[in-house]
Specification:
By secondary structure, the protein is mainly alpha-helical. It contains five helices and two strands; from the N terminus they run E-E-H-H-H-H-H. The protein has a two-stranded antiparallel ribbon. The model has no long low-confidence stretch (mean pLDDT about 80).
């Protein structure tokens, strides 16, 4: 089957060429996309800041709570690395070493010793914090809502 139509501008016949029958996508590719979508969580800068604060807290988390926090921070790093790689920020000289460090920290095997796990949790927290700050400054990601300057009214302005 060949589709053709008249070009409204020139009045000449235009042909799109023969049509190919539609093909179903590869099942493995579809499953890979669905798995990524299921694992995706939306960006929430305030939650990220809370988790970074927990990771850097002078009183370290223990056990399962620390493992869950470390896994969330790894997820944040994956998202930040992806945001940086798909934006102009990847060309910024400040971001390059932060990306290298984020990939290193993300790739570390989970520590089995308590104090090493605390150190690893703090490295994850710092990596998320520094890369996030740089990407916010470069407008590659939105800053946390709690840090918006227009959130609080200034004295004398009222709240209307």
């Amino acid at each position: 089957m060949v589709l053709s139509h008249l070009d409204n501008y020139s009045g000449t016949q235009c042909g799109a060429g023969p049509l190919e029958p539609a093909r179903l996508p590869d099942c493995a590719a579809v499953e890979m996309v669905l798995t990524a979508l299921r694992a995706w969580s939306p960006y929430d800068g305030d939650t990220w800041l809370d988790d970074v604060a927990d990771a850097l807290d002078p009183v370290p988390r223990t056990g399962e709570r620390a493992d869950e926090l470390a896994e969330r921070l790894r997820g944040y790093l994956r998202q930040l690395i992806s945001y940086a790689a798909s934006s102009e920020a990847k060309r910024d000289e400040r971001v390059t070493p932060l990306l290298v460090r984020a990939r290193e920290v993300h790739g570390e095997e989970p520590a089995d010793d308590y104090w090493r796990a605390v150190g690893q949790l703090r490295r994850l927290g710092w990596a998320v914090n520094e890369l996030h700050d740089a990407l916010v400054e470069l407008h590659a990601v939105k800053g946390p809502d709690s840090l918006r300057e227009d959130q609080w009214s200034t004295p004398g302005q009222g709240t209307s």
